[in-house]
Records
---
Amino acid sequence: MSPRLRNLMSLEVEGVAADWTKTTCPYCGVGCGVLAKPANKTCTLAEIKGDPDHPSNFGRLCSKGAALGETLSLDGRLRHPMIDGEQRCWDDALSLVAERFRETVDCHGPDSVALYVSGQILTEDYYVANKLMKGFIGSANIDTNSRLCMASSVTGHNRAFGSDTVPGNYEDLELADLVVLVGSNLAWCHPVLFQRLAVAREKRGTKIVVIDPRRTMTCEIADLHLAIAPGGDVALYNGLLAHLTVEGQVNDEYVAAHTSGFDAAVAVAAQLSEGELQSATGLSADECAKFYALFSANERVVTVYSQGVNQSSSGTDKVNAILNCHLATGRIGKLGCGPFSVTGQPNAMGGREVGGLANMLAAHMQLSNTEHGRIVQDFWQSPRIANRPGYKAVDLFRAVGDGRIKALWIMATNPVDSLPEADLVREAIAGCPFVVVSDVERHTDTTVLGHVLLPSQSWGEKSGTVTNSERRISRQRPFVPVMGEVKPDWWQICEVAKRMGYNEGFEYAGPASIFAEYAALTGAENDGSRDLDISAYEKVTVAEYDALAPFQWPQPAGGLPRETRFFADGDFFTPDKRAYLVATPFRAPASKTSEAFPLVLNTGRIRDQWHTMTRTAKTPRLLSHYAEPFVEIHPDDARASGLEAAQLAEIESRSGRVVMRVVVTDQQRRGTVFAPMHWTDQFANNARIDALISGHTDPQSGQPESKFTPVRVQPLNARWHGFAIVTSRVEIASFDYAAIAPIAGGFRLELAGCEVPASWVELADELLQPSGPLDGTAAATQVSNRVGPVIEVVAYHDRSAGQYRFAAFCDDRCVGLFFAARGSVEISRTWAVEQLDQAFEGAERLQLLAGRPGRDVPDRGRIICACFDVGLNQITEAIASGRCDSVAAVGDELKAGTNCGSCRVEIGRLLNEGCFAEAG
Ligand code: SF4
């Protein structure tokens, strides 16, 4: 064992009780270390805390990470293999997959099959999936949902550095004098990294610039917010490069010694006139000048960027325009300096490492490089090797749609909701002759289309490694027993490969042996010519793998490289070792607004949800922050569109339509709207936002333009609105608007209709007693006469005011509430969800129909602090009363913000700008 590994192992056990398992958070690319321990006999709850020894988070967790212990419920899990909706044994399912893939390849060639995988799977899963497709089937038709997240960064890195190298470390954000966040809502999307930056700013006075069309929560710690016009980043950075050149801020020595392409890049950058710069960026000359002056004045600059840069039809040019400025000033490869792409997913980086993208080989080798192809094929001893790129995600599903791909295996992702032109993607998958879906959940919008469903191990059950945004490889370790028949994704791939006749390449004893093989491949014929080398681990034993502590690559077999920081010596991975400045002429977004579609739709994440909510929606407290899909719009645009706050709006693009709740806010740039990416048909009946997104992609990276879709927004012509609390899931498809969110013991529903129901009693009956009709009419206590538990319903109707209210009880316990009104339903949601399963007698039942707490019980309002269930109204009251004048004071009084800290920035905004109490 290497001394380094021994050292890491001793760190591994230090300070951790034997019954805590060290693992890694399965959400964002920060890659926080987590300590987990089962908290009940069935292991469906766990205690969770941040790992104080993990170098990514040093014990911190955000709201999502802190709630991980509540997401282990077995409800809704896919427990058995299924074929055409019938439960089958593994052997039947795997043999069918192998047979259909084999037949399809034999009849139609290797490019007629495809794998679509995910940044959620582990590196070991990714490695064997890529090996099967590129080395044995012989096609590069394997792509990943990471294409939607950071493909432009990969291409930009390769163009500039000759390798897909993220050169920075998280500590650089703490050592920088200036941190520029471009298209990155770090506060909500990488919260622990944001917290590290916020602490550094308090200690050192770090200057922070945020470049984002929206005034996101991240702006609360910014010295300068540039509300750039969507798509204007290349122009802004070309302007910066031109400014640096004119002002003599270029590091001439560095440029001459270590780069090429400088003159051409500057020539293109300088073509942009002042007027063109302002028109493309929507920023004033003064705003640009302030940013340029800050960049010029600070040697230690880190530029953090993510989806706001990558998800664009000019995403790769945006990346290179940023890299150009760092290369021109030599601000790269040094402490506290450099461009820093932060990934959205927990293992987007691991996927890149093993070749999970259709245009990469494995171990950061290139498909287009025949020598790399030979190295990989020799190493794998594979019958063939793919030598041309496969279909990238958007094209892959087009190829499914037009029949070029006839057998598709989707693993750990939900393309029916997450890809652009999502309705077309749904049609394409539905029409594909053979679809396999490996997933943890039984019911997703994608699993319903699978011919074969393969049950996968979930976080907490599975074992392997992930790589975070700073190239740190950490173990995900199991800490709960594996449920039923579920199996690791790597095992599923290997079993199918063997059944296809590829026995020799896929006999692995477990993830440790896959990891060792992958580590060895990174060192194969690698004399320092490739960035990725972890061959120090090529002989890792099972025990060493189990004890593996987080480490950053590179870690070559011969010991640490001469320079442990990438590019510190000015050498890059291009043939002449020089970095390349790419000329990046400004291009406007591919779509244009018009009279019919005058607003620009931007999509993104919210603080407490993850992707398509299959895990985060298992914990009600994460849904208490935002319980339904919403669209944010500037007050001027809302007025022009005839919209008011909390109304429902239809949002339409050329490819689809959704309905969402309106949030009117001046934090939204005029002319743009924002909607979250998370809601699916499982949680709302018409809020799959990717159905609206066009299929325009970046020509280099294939990444879709998810931040710029022309739309129109108009009020939904709803004639009634409703809110209900129910104990079991109800069918929501038939409503004009419906959103359903789990709560403790049941579900909450937001409803609306464009036609008044023929009978309110019947509707209440469907919602509150899905198994049978109510007996009786309005304004009286009714008792059902169904077989089964007796449900009593108290109802209040005011026809003239258009108010209909129902409360249902079983054995004195509240089992449902339904409030309907012509206009909005003005009741306290936070209070209402807490009434489920509470005991009520006599007049107390009527009190429930008032829809709000009694006078002696305060209405907490929408939940801001998910850890301690602290609501907006509690915080605003504490501020307005003068008792709390700081985030710390709010924490002292209400505990809000004192655990994970994810809500501290929101509390800070309430303190700075003031906020009105609202019905929760
Ligand atoms: Fe998980 Fe939050 Fe850490 Fe991201 S920041 S890895 S979501 S705990």
---
Amino acid sequence: MAALGRFLSVEGIDGAGKSTQLAWIAQWLKQHSVAFVQTREPGGTALGEKLRDLLLSEPMHLETETLLMFAGRREHLEQVIKPALARGEWVLCDRFSDASYAYQGGGRGLPREKFIALEEWVQGVAPNKIQPDLTLIFDVPLSVSQERMAGGRTLDRFEREATDFHARVRAAYLERAASEPQRIRVINANRSLEEIQQELAEILSAIL
Ligand code: ADP
Ligand code: TYD
């Protein structure tokens, strides 16, 4: 049987520098001849991208928002993530379930039990649960993310939220990282690109 690929997800509050580092990680994987699929949530499938458009623009009830995130995830797992891993490829995913905990849970206050139920439904139950082998959370203070976001582009429904929303999202990410230290690595992204990328190269080399 072919070796199973590795599942990597990348997270962080808006403006932490996630997209910049994702592009660098993709480049690193190419340079090291790792076959991988780069994808994102919400999104990653034709249906998921339609859901993404709705999620980023339409006001909706918090539970509707959460259910749509997980509905898109179900489709994404089936159509993209599981097949890639089964082919022995890596999956580099821009956000996954930890984002639901952070945004819908931390940011908007949906109780934790709801996520446990949805995660079990969509990702399965241990030992067959599908979840990232490694999650990198790019962490910066709010003042830094806000400075980095102030680039003039149009902000989506989440990026437009108030500072205290983003502070709760950040706190939820850090709490989740503390509860799963074997899977989640918090990267101090309030450093130069070179310093961050040196740490990333060490982490990636260790799992190659
Ligand atoms: P995100 O995807 O987390 O919203 P981006 O990667 O788009 O963040 O970065 C937001 C802005 O911050 C971009 O202009 C990017 O060039 C800049 N940036 C990203 N990382 C750093 C860094 N370590 N130091 C300085 N600027 C950064
Ligand atoms: P993002 O990847 O940050 O888009 P971009 O970098 O292009 O702006 O993701 C879009 C937003 O979706 C982001 O603000 C976080 C939010 N989100 C949730 O609220 N819950 C989730 O489960 C996921 C996957 C994303």
---
Amino acid sequence: MDRIRIVGGPTLEGTIKISGAKNAALPLMIASLLTPETLTLENVPALADVNMLLRILGHHGVDYSVDGRRTGEDPHASRAIHLTARSIVDIMAPYDLVSKMRASFWVVAPLLARMGEARVSLPGGCAIGTRPVDLLLMVLEKLGASVEIEAGYVHARAPKGLKGAEITFPKITVGGTHTALMAACLAEGHTLITNAAREPEIVDLADCLTKMGAKIKGAGQSIIEIEGVARLGGASHRVLPDRIEAGTYAIAVAMAGGNVLLEGAEAHLLQNALDTIERAGAGISVTNEGIRIKRNGAGIEAVDVTTAPFPGFPTDLQAQFMALMTKAKGSSVITETIFENRFMHVQELARLGARIRLDGDSAIVEGVSTLQGAPVMATDLRASVSLVIAALAAEGETMVNRVYHLDRGFEHLEEKLGRCGAIIERITNAA
Ligand code: EPZ
């Protein structure tokens, strides 16, 4: 299994190109199931999760091709993929595929909307908590499907097609909102979604569906209206830049010090996080090319953070920001409100010398002046990258194990950091 070795100390100087967003690319790829025509997605990051989803879509009958690179092209540039679900050959998504990636459960909505039936394995638990799918099933039922759970599978049926409905989410859910968008655009009549998620990835999916012929109003706001259409067609769409990747590297620069341009990053996608990182002592400026982040000499200030749905501070940056706070002057309180068990990084950060105490859904971080390198591992991708961030500012060598978590969500992480001066290398096939 691969490992990543980091020697802490150097500041980061240079440019990091921000990739297409994983969490936008995945639902966009799934949307290809809604049409027999070709959906072309540009700026798709080269990630293990994208490759896994291509396999899953192939199982349902999607033909796909991935653009190659021309000579001289940046090997780190995200790619274009073409997806054509001319006919759906299987409405069943088996356990061995869905259990590898939770987001693949989202195929249930387009399969049901297009074929009138879907059988999809329940995704099961995951490293960041129980993560139920009750609200996704509520969406399907509201739109007129019968939903039964049989032997670990969700069996959803709507032989006469889905019908528009009023859907009110009792809790904001990204996956629930993606599900409602994809199912309602092929349902007959009008759908009103209340308390919808407002994440940029929702807007990106709605934009793409609109190019495919869907009639959607209000994406990015709490109330979304959809007028169903009989069929959707092909389209070409560019995946938006990854706000979590941009936030992660911004925090890395705040931690290690230096001056880096996050090329292609869009500040409005992560304003809350940028404001928080700025309060922690980094300088941030927005340019035509992206976001520039600097920290020279000044210490790291302690800042309290509470995660919240967009436009709040994202849960997907909580672990990274906690890593930064381990070296702050003073103590900070980090409260996680989205997932109930997203603190697995705490024990591993402690191995590097961090002082963190858990109290319910909060972590109290007492800043220390020095972290010490150590062997560490983590059980999800954001937790893993928080260890990389801590390691950049730790004395000596840190070995991050279970690197496959990083490969699920960060494109060319060690090259991107290495080109800015970090001492970081991948050790392949280590025992
Ligand atoms: C998406 O997960 C992201 N995944 C997550 O990113 C992200 O952390 C999360 O949204 C929140 O922003 C992808 O986009 C692939 P939710 P999702 O439904 O849609 C509860 C990463 O690291 N809930 O918004 O699964 C749920 O348990 C990942 O890239 C129900 O109770 O998240 C959670 O407490 C991890 N019932 C809350 O809602 C349901 O039916 C928000 O979850 C669905 C969700």
